[in-house]
Amino acid sequence: MEENAYLTSIFASVFYLVASVRLLRLNRRTGERPELLLGIYFGFSGAYYLVFNLPSLFGFDSWPPATEWMIEWIYVLGVFPYLFFIRSVFRPKAAWAGALVGICSVLLLVGTALGTLNGGDVYSLDNLWFHVQWTGYTAPCAWLGLEAMLSRRGARKRTRLGLCEPIVANRYLLLALFGGFQFLACLADLLLAADADGGQAVSMISDALLGGSEIASVAVLWLAFFPPRFYSDWITRRAVILPTPMDG
Amino acid sequence: MADALFDIAAERLEESSDMDRLAARGTLRLALKAAGLDANRLTIPQLRTVFEKIMPKELEARGVADAAASCKTAMGAIERAASENELAASNSPDEIFKRLGGS
To answer: What is the DSSP letter of B40?
Structure first.
C-alpha cells in the first residue's frame, strides 16, 4: 500500500511539472499573471513531490529530518503564488482576502523556518511547527475549493444566458474539486503525523487517502487543463442556453 | 472602472424607467444576481445581455410601462455613456479560466 502511495505521488509530480510547463508557456504568450502564478505553484509542487519521494523511488533510506525540512521549503515557496492566484482571480478588491494571504504566508514562513531551526520530525503531531506550517498550506486548498464552487454557481447562470461557455463553467467545478482533493491530501498529512510511531492501520488509511486524493487531483486537472475533445463536446451538449425574450 | 459602469447603468435605468434611484439600483443588483454577475466586474456585453434577457421581466414585475422599450433606451444610453470606459475583460475569472484550458 505504501509503495502505491509513493508511486501515485511520483505520477502526480510528473503531471504537475507538465501542467507547470504548459501554464508558463501560456504566460509567455499572454503576459498575464494568473497563469504565471499557477504555473510556478505547480512547478514547485511537482519538484517537491519528486524530491520528497526519491528515497522510495530509488530504494534508499528516508531523508533525515533536517533534509526533509529543507525539502519542505520547495513546497512552501510554491504556496505563495498559489495564494496570490486565488486572491487575484476571485477576490482582487477584498481586504479580507489580502489579510488571509498575509496570515497564511506568515504561518508558512514561521512554521517552516522555526521547524527547520528546531529540527525534529516534519510529520509529527508533537511538533508545534508542523501544525503551524500545516495550517498555512491547508487553508489555501480549502479556500480555492470554496471560491471555485461559489464562482461555479454564478457561471452556471451566465451559461444559461450565453455569457459563459459551458466548458469554462465546468472548469470552475474541476478547480473546486482539485481544491477539495488537495484538502484531503492535507488531511492525509495529519494522519501521517499521527502515525509517527508507525501504526499499521493508520498508515494504510493515510496512504490510501494520499494516493487516492493525488490520483483524483491529477484526473480533474487533466480535464481542466488538457480537456479531451469528447469531454468538451459532452459538456457543451449538456448545457442549456435560454432564448432571448426580446427576440420574439 | 466596473463600479463606474454599474453606476452609469443604474442612472440610465432610473431615467428610462421612472423608478427612483434606490429602486433602479436595487432592481439592477437583483438582475445581475439572477445572471450570476458581479457588479464590480461588469462589462458592456454582459450588461447588454442582462437588459435583453432579464431586465424586461424585472421591470414588468415592478409595474414599469413598456418595459422592453425602457430597457432598449437604457442600454443605448449606457453604451453611449460608457463606450470610453469599458473595462478590458482579459482578467475576469471567466477569461482566466478560459485561457487555462487553452480554449
So the answer is: G
